[in-house]
Every structure is written in structure tokens, then in C-alpha cells.
Design brief:
single chain; about 375 residues; mainly alpha; two-stranded antiparallel sheet
């Protein structure tokens, strides 16, 4: 298959670190990663792609701390419906009852289902079949791929004619692969690649590999070290790797979210705010600024702007895996009330405990 050759060539360019360590207290860390992801996403949704100054104004008007250290007190366009399911007020302080719907939430569940159904040897065709069966709609690269599938294009070619192949879409689908291969970043990076291939190419695929590997590594090390390990799981001749090296060079000198945003705007002037390169660098900056503290990490991530719900979800997953659920303040996850909603057909309402148990079983199976 064309995808196999393409991905084999990518893997041959990677210098994967020889790391494969069993995490201690996996379920605690998995719970931290999953709920950490969902909380970061929930915090970022209401200000997705907003300019920093606009976020400051909304915070001041609503009485929300900024950078936000709790959920937003008010939502612009409060009656707007997110993905046809939840009102925007469902993301605000005092009104959250369950993890509200978003693509960053839905794709984590989608890829859990993918791995439950097809296992570690799933193919690009398997991804396409599952999308056609339970994914009703999508955005940007995913929308193009899904429309191609609906029009009879085979999964191997679903990314063709797609202007978004290096946007962030594949990277936000990374987490499930990092969860099941916790402690084994190389395996996580390789496992996610067929998923990425359905809709992305080149740096778009590398973004998912980087995120999956960093999340897998976070189960056994600090967030900043996990980022560095994730970087080593993509080709070093890629633009994304060079950009990540640039971002990590500010490890000892980055001041705050405003400084980070200024650096991003200067380096990536003219790049779309949903591209993978600028946003993965924003992920690096948030981890640097957070210094292993969950609240500070997602707070600085959201305040930085860009695709801030996606980025806060990713850093929430990384830090959550590193510190475990006991390292996340309760106010971020208590309102979830053991419920998560998606827009997947047949999986609209799930229990968080069931999702966690499914990932635990997958991890045990994949680690054999």
C-alpha cells in the first residue's frame, strides 16, 4: 500500500530514542491525562483563536482571572451551539455538567474506538471505514478527507486535493495512541501515523507523531522532558523539528504568555492560526511556562491564543499524564460528573469511568 511505503520512509528518517518503561500507577496517570485534556479543551473553547487583547477584555468584563485559572464566567454568543450539541454556556463556570462537546474531545474517543475495534495493526482503510460509519462531520483537513470518502475516494487517497494537510487536525487526534503506549514514545509515534495519513501529509503527520510520543513519554518523566523526547520522534530534516528546536531554545528565558505570543507572531508571520508548526511551538512554550504545574500550564496556553482549545488540551494531556489526577486541582474536573459527550453516532453520551477502563485494558493489551 502507498501509505506503508510513505510511512516507512518517514520512520527511516527518525532517530527514535530507546525508551520503553512501564509507568507506575498507570490508571492514576491516565485519568490525569484524559481529564487534563478535557479540562484544557473546555477552558479554551470559548476563546478559540481570539486575539489576546479580546480575551483580556472578556476576562475583565466577566470577572474571570486572566490568564484564566478557572473556567470562564461568561461566554460570548452564549446561545451558540457547539457542534450541534452544547450551548456555549455549557463551558462556563457553574454551568458545566459533563465534558461538553468539542472535536478535541470527540477525536480522543474516536481513536479509542478505532484501537478497540482494529487493534495495533489497524490500517488507513480501517480509519476510513470507521469515519464513514460514526463521524458525521468534520472541519478543514478532516472535512476534506471525509467528503472524499463519502464520494467513493479510497482512504489511501482521501488526503489528496486537501489544502489543510499541514494544519493541526492530525495533532489533536494524537492522545489515544500515547495513552495505550504510555512509556513507549516510539511505538506511540508509529501507531498514530496511519490515522494521520488519512487526512494529512508531511508536517501534519509529524505533528501527530510528536504529540503522541510526548504524551507517551509524559507517563514516565516530566512534561518538559516529554516534549524533548517527542521532538526526537519526528524527522530531524523537517520544518516542524526545526521550529520545535527553536521553541525549546527559550526554555530558560521565556517570560510569560505575552512574550511567547510575540515570539510566535514574529517567527510565523502570515501563517494561519490553525497550522501545525506555530501551534506545536505554542504547546512547547506553554509547557516551559507551566513548569509542571497543571493550572499554570493550561492557563498560559489559553492566554497565548492561537488554536488555544487544541493546545490547552494537548498540554493538559501531557502535564496530566506526568502529575496524575492527584496533581490536578479538583475544580477543573469535578464539574464533569463522570460524563462526556461527543458527536459520534452511537457514542453521544459516555461515562468517563468507562472510557478510562477501556484505555486501561488497551494499554494492558498493547504492552504485552
Amino acid at each position: 500500500m502507498k501509505s506503508s511505503l510513505y510511512l516507512k520512509e518517514i520512520f527511516s528518517k527518525c532517530e527514535f530514542p530507546a525508551i520503553n518503561k512501564k509507568p507506575d500507577d498507570y490508571k492514576n496517570r491516565l485519568t490525569g491525562a484524559l481529564l487534563g485534556r478535557f479540562a484544557g479543551c473546555t477552558l479554551g473553547v470559548l476563546v478559540e483563536n481570539y486575539p489576546v487583547e479580546k480575551m483580556r477584555e472578556i476576562a475583565k468584563k466577566s470577572g474571570t482571572p486572566f490568564p484564566p485559572t478557572e473556567y470562564w464566567h461568561e461566554a460570548e454568543n452564549p446561545d451558540g451551539i457547539q457542534y450541534g450539541v452544547d450551548k456555549r454556556t455549557s463551558f462556563t463556570l457553574g454551568h458545566i455538567d459533563g465534558v461538553p462537546v468539542d472535536d478535541d474531545v470527540t477525536y480522543t474517543i474516536l481513536n479509542m474506538i478505532l484501537l478497540k475495534r482494529y487493534g495495533k495493526n489497524y490500517t488507513v482503510d480501517d480509519v476510513g471505514k470507521l469515519w464513514l460509519e460514526i463521524l458525521p462531520y468534520a472541519c478543514t483537513a478532516e472535512e476534506c478527507a471525509l467528503n472524499n470518502l463519502k464520494n467513493g475516494v479510497c482512504a489511501e487517497k482521501a488526503a489528496e486535493g486537501n489544502d489543510f494537510i499541514e494544519w493541526i487536525g492530525a495533532a489533536i487526534r494524537a492522545d489515544a495512541f500515547g495513552y495505550v503506549y504510555a512509556g513507549n514514545p516510539e511505538a506511540a509515534a508509529k501507531l498514530c501515523a496511519c490515522d494521520a495519513y488519512l487526512s494529512h501529509r508531511e508536517n501534519g503527520i509529524y505533528g501527530e507523531m510528536f504529540a503522541s510520543a510526548a504524551i507517551a513519554a509524559a507517563f514516565i518523566t516530566t512534561p518538559i522532558e516529554a516534549i524533548k523526547i517527542g521532538m526526537e520522534c519526528i524527522p530531524k530534516d523537517s520544518a516542524l523539528y526545526k521550529d520545535l528546536k527553536w521553541a525549546i531554545s527559550y526554555e530558560d528565558t521565556l517570560v510569560d504568555y505575552a512574550h511567547a505570543r510575540k515570539l510566535l507572531d514574529e517567527r510565523f508571520e502570515g501563517m494561519h492560526c490553525v497550522h501545525v508548526q506555530n501551534n506545536m511551538c505554542a504547546v512547547v512554550f506553554a509547557v516551559i511556562l507551566g513548569k509542571g504545574d497543571y493550572t499554570k500550564t493550561i492557563s498560559q496556553s489559553v492566554a497565548m491564543g492561537m488554536d488555544n482549545d487544541c493546545n490547552a488540551a494537548t498540554v493538559g494531556s501531557i502535564v496530566g499524564a506526568s502529575v496524575g489526577i492527584n496533581g490536578i486541582p479538583e475544580h477543573w474536573y469535578k464539574p464533569f460528573n463522570n460524563k462526556v459527550r461527543t458527536y459520534l453516532k452511537g457514542y453521544e453520551n459516555l461515562k468517563l469511568t468507562d472510557v478510562i477502563d477501556d484505555f486501561v485494558k488497551l494499554h494492558e493489551e498493547f504492552s504485552k
